[in-house]
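Recall that a protein's primary structure is simply its ordered list of amino acids. Everything else, from secondary elements to tertiary packing, is in principle encoded there. The following example makes that idea concrete.
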Amino acid sequence: MDIKAYIESGIIESYVLGMADDHERAELEQLSRQYPEIRAAIDAFELSLEQNAMANAIQPAAHVKANILTEIAGEFSDITEARTTAKLVSMSTPGTGWLRYVAAAAVILLVVSAATNVYFYRQFREASSQYQSLLIEKSSLLAQNQALQAKGLDLYQGMQIMSDPAYTKVSLPGVKADENKLATVFWDKKSNDVYLLTNRLPQTSADTQYQLWAIVDGKPVDAGMVDICNGLCKMKNISNATAFAITLEKRGGSPTPNLDQLQVLGGVNG
């Protein structure tokens, strides 16, 4: 699209002065959102109208009012004299001075009207911008509310699982120098569902991640990577486990545990 030719076509002037039709207005508003040059041209023309109106708002000299009143008085005097002397021709012909006043008034009204249109258009655009901001704020609040509802639901479901007697609770305390660390596994031996609660595990770095392991028949079995969860994290299903452990691995996990990075370990009771 030739932006320069479009700007010079006169559509912007027609739009700002309120002379564009619905199709032209819709097209220009859409293009102004796509092309900053068009938006800048609209703003520039609006500003030029406003500046022109202010620049031409000249305070008349004090003697102008007296002269106008004197001339008006003279006109009325002429009319009175014409009536008394029956000069009908003079009465029927308007003075050229009145024509000058009417023309000047028309120009002033045109400038004032254009400036008024610009003012109210800017007020309308500001109100529209505020309305859009309110819509965006409303959408943000709705998204936050939905996120809080989802988090609340996850926490509620987690509480239900932790209090369900069908789940075996397996405490995983820290090992050796990491005794302050703690995690808890909730395992349903019938459905094999496994959930993990990271009670006290430090934040990992960007390139590392915790991995849960189940000890099955004396061998470690991958039970899933630990992600950020609202309460309980759903892990992989596990059957016939005798213990659970967590190691710190490279992000994405490992097929075998890095025992040098063993964080917590706990056996299954019963």
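The CA atoms of residues 162 and 225 lie 20 Å apart. The radius of gyration is 42 Å.
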